[in-house]
Amino acid sequence: MLAQFLQFLYSGMTVGSAYALAALGFTIIYNTSGVINFAQGEFIMLGGMFAALLAGGGMPLPLAIAIAVVATGLVGLVMEKAVIEPAQNAHVVTLIIITIGASLTLRGLVQIFLGKATHSLPPFSGDKPIEFLGASLLPQSLWVLGVTLAVVGALAWFFGRTLLGKAMLATSHNKLAAQLVGINTRVVLLLSFGLSALLGALGGILVAPITYTSYDAGIMLGLKGFVAAVLGGLGGGVGAVAGGLILGIIEAMTAGYISSSYKDAVPFVVILVILFFMPRGLFGAKISERV
Amino acid sequence: MKMMQSRHAGLLVLAVVLALLPLVLPNSFYVDVAIKIALNAIVVIGLNLLMGYTGQISLGHAGFVGMGAYGSAALTTHFNWPPMLALLAGAAATGLLAFALARPILKLKGHTLAMATLGLGIIISIVINNEAQWTGGPDGMSVPSFTLFGLTIAGEMAWYAVAAVLLLITTWLALNLIDSPVGRALQAIHGSEVAARVSGVDTTRFKVRVFVLSAVMASIAGSVNAHYVGFLTPGIAGFFPSIELVTMVVVGGMASVFGSIVGAALLTVLPQLLQTFEGWEVVVFGMILMATMIFLPKGLVPSIAQRLRARAVKGA
Lengths: 291, 316
What we know:
Order of helices and strands of chain A: HHHHEEHHHHHHH
Largest sheet of chain B: 2 strands, antiparallel
Strand content of chain B: under 5%
Strand order of the largest sheet of chain A: 1-2
Helix content of chain B: over 70%
Order of helices and strands of chain B: HHHHHHEEEHHHHEHHHH
Mean pLDDT of chain A: 87
Strand order of the largest sheet of chain B: 1-4
Mean pLDDT of chain B: 88
Structural class of chain A: mainly alpha
CATH class of chain B: Mainly Alpha
Oligomer: heterodimer
């Protein structure tokens, strides 16, 4: 009984970490620009695909991962420069639609140049399950959880201790005030896309050994990352990570105890119910809108 | 007075175009495309009432199309309902669902509204995928032909006539709605919801009505499409079709009824043209979406109309 519960919990926390990394990407871009980046899922897919193809071509795994993360980060930078910056003062709906366009374009290009096949990445340290409290845990799950924790720590340091991080934080609080104290908010916006793309790629690479990856792997991961981010209130890192983990665990429990065919619907039902009763998400700050 | 004239002129032009189109379309392939354009345009006009006139985005409208389509298919196949009754029942069920959810959903704004509508659409498509005993699941299901008073609509031309008449009625209704006090209230909501409320517009009630209306229009178009094509797969209710509908609205032009028709026409024809370049249709779709939003954020028809008007002023 307990072993089964733990089994579901482990798998929920593993997927939940992937959602958390995606949610962090959504949150960072949202905070610096007010944009919901629907291409976040494609960053996840790009990371997984690049790493899988490079590693499949015989490159050592650590090098393949590093190149995949950097390459995806570059894609994020290019995307911001090419389509977000030219439309900077546009309406939120307009910006949402632009990111949807970017997402379709990226997915289509991957389908054309890298093919429709499913790819896999070897697990980072073997695939011998570890027995823990009576349930088995894949070594890759530990990697996912560990790296997510490390990323959260690194982000806390970055936003709390570095000048650049503080500049990004300042921009998210008040763009005009940030500009007045000499922060180049344009660069901040650019970097937020790069950083989100890096995080997305990392998430995609971490789960690729468990879930496989293909050109369309980013759609669901991205949408669920968005759910996790809204669940967490789109405010800070803690909310995003909590949102991701909660979502992953609820999903795994539903799949385990209720119905596995409806597990993909669960995040969306959860977010609808929560938005109906708490329009700002679980951890969202209460702010009144100025007219 | 001037407004009314231009409204009727536009409707007349549309009627003439729709009547003459079959004469110039060379074969049934083109007629088929024209029918698809008309049915898409009906959904897009409804969605544009919501997006363009009240400023509320919906990333889940294909879910309503799916409800209408599968409602018709399931009721006629499993319960032998007459198609017309099934269509009305599907529309009523969709309208009821939209009405029940409209208040909590439309309280949300910006990204949370996008999230909620997107979630609703995805839930509907997952239900269609999973309830295989009624919908055939991922394999899809066939739909009987449409009969009314013993007459069966068969053949491309008959379906074209049905789709064209429906499109004309929809356009006429939408134009009338926009020019009515309701329409002005809706535009006030788009301008500033608070200002509208301050000047006495019951914003919630209007938003709810438009949401329900657009859902019902999507459902009816879905039902008609189901009988026309004769076979349904769950893909029609998915996330991508919802995005396509939004694209048609923004490319044609927000807050423009004729823009909706132009948007539906362009983006229905485009995939057919690109069919031979596998994969590229998605890329081109995405690029058109981005380019329109960056260079013509108001969409094709309003931007062109603005330029023509500017030129007319200069000429005079």
